[in-house]
Every structure is written in C-alpha cells, then in structure tokens.
Amino acid sequence: MLAEETLLNRVREIIEVTHDNVGEKKAFGGICFMVNDKMCVAVKPERIMVRIDPEKNDDVISKNGCEPMVHNGKVMRGFVFVSSAELQSKKQLEYWVKLALDYNPVAKQSKKKVKKSNN
Fold first, then answer.
1. 3-106 has which CATH code?
2. What is the pLDDT of residues 60-94, one digit of tens each?
3. Edge-to-edge strands of the sheet including 30-35?
4. Residues in domain TfoX N-terminal (predicted)?
C-alpha cells in the first residue's frame, strides 16, 4: 500500500467516526475530504492540507512540518500544509484533523459551480 493511501485511510477513519456528511473528491493533487459540503482536509503525496480557523493561522504555522498554503503567490490564511513526517502517530494526525473539524461548522461553504447547458 502506498504511503499516501495509508495516510488517506487514517484521515478517513478519524473523520468518519464523528461525522456523517462526509464526501471525497479529487482536488489539490490529491483527495479532499468534504465535511458538510465544505473543504476540510486534503491528502496529497508527502503531506496534508488542513483548513483551519484563519485566526489561528499565525500560532499554527510555527509548528514543526507546517507551512502556509500559497496560491498564485498569495498566502492563503486558514489553509496550511503539514508534512506527513509530522503525522506518524495517531495523536499527531488527530491534532491536525481536529483543527479542521473544529473550524468546519463556521467555515464558509464553497460556491457551487453552475453547469452551463448547450441549449
């Protein structure tokens, strides 16, 4: 089993124990867990992306293996990457997933893309 697949299964187990409305979709070059139709955690090769409370961004970013998400040259507050090297124990992984799950109820929902019809 690939390391990413193992990490994916570990994240899945943590989220599905406490949440019913969970979906998975391809995004960010990996698999993104959607909780209550909101982006929560994405598993990528060698790391995870975690959506956190933007107010906690500065405190969290100083932790080992954590770095800000940069999109088009702009730091995306409230989105961080965490190296899989820092997610070896269940406690380590639960910490990051819990940060995302705690923020999820107040996180803004992504805008739904409207599919254009050819008619």
1. 3.90.1150.30
2. 999 999 999 998 999 999 999 999 999 999 999 99
3. 22-27, 30-35, 38-44, 47-51, 74-83, 66-71
4. 20-102
